[in-house]
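Hey team,

Filing this mostly as a record. A colleague (T.K.) asked me to run one chain through the structure pipeline before their review meeting, and I want the input and output archived in the tracker in case anyone asks later how it was produced. No errors, nothing strange. Just documentation.

Input sequence:
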Amino acid sequence: MIRDILRAGSPSTSFEFFPPRSDEAVLQLERTIAELGPLDPSFVSVTWGAGGSTREKTIDIVSRIKRETGIEAMAHLTCVGATRDEIAAILDRLVEAGIENVLALRGDPPQDQTAFTATAGGFRYASELTAFIRARYGSKLCLGGAAYPEKHTECPDAAVDLDNLKSKVDAGLDFLITQLFFDNRYYWDFVERARGAGIGVPIIPGLMPITGAAQVAKFGATVPATLTAELSRHKDDPQAVAQIGIEQATSQAVDLLSGGVPGIHFYTLNRSKATRDILSALRARGLAGTPAVAR
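Output structure:
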């Protein structure tokens, strides 16, 4: 379980994938898993599409990764578009497939909806989903949750967001993974505030290397002015932009690992090169080793 990996003390390394929507994307994901697998990640996770649109693919991919590679795998699970009974059935399927880790999320609304609406007979908040899973499965499942160093976009202020996070953790979370950020000061400040609020679980920073200049406007995270300027200067050179993204994420990871974070979670976008380059640079510095817990 992921909680055992985190308790072992060595920083974890994890990769996030999303279910592909086309035959070509399926092949891309398979290549990425094949290329990243030898890097011996502590665990990998597979996202849950908006509105549960990739439900079957998520279950299939996370089960195959666990079965065929032996890598510790985690399925994302949201409250969107499912009743309590449907969620219970999904969880039973995951447990039967040997999955022991779930990232419990409220989830984003379907693309045709502007705001989240709870399904009749379902859950309104990630805290309710977390409490339901913990009550049903006890310690049989390891539960993670999402955290937002710059607060959730729908939350009115950081204090309310932190209160909501505390409710999720108190409901039974074992660890947290943050949304991406590009200035480590947001992470360090967030962790300090979380500890002050009584949140004691590991908080894994999530990093996404920039691979294209157009990505930046979509991130929903503050991009330092110096990074924005550098990306702008090279916006017509895709290779230069990708290299800037690798260097930025590597610099962030070095600082985070040197500061004692419990691990680094890479949002891979189902691509391997940037993550491989960053992890190679970290291991060359002795900052990222192999998992301390045998699978």
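Quick notes for T.K.: The radius of gyration is 18 Å. Strands lie at 12-17, 43-46, 73-78, 101-105, 142-147, 175-180, 203-207, 263-267.
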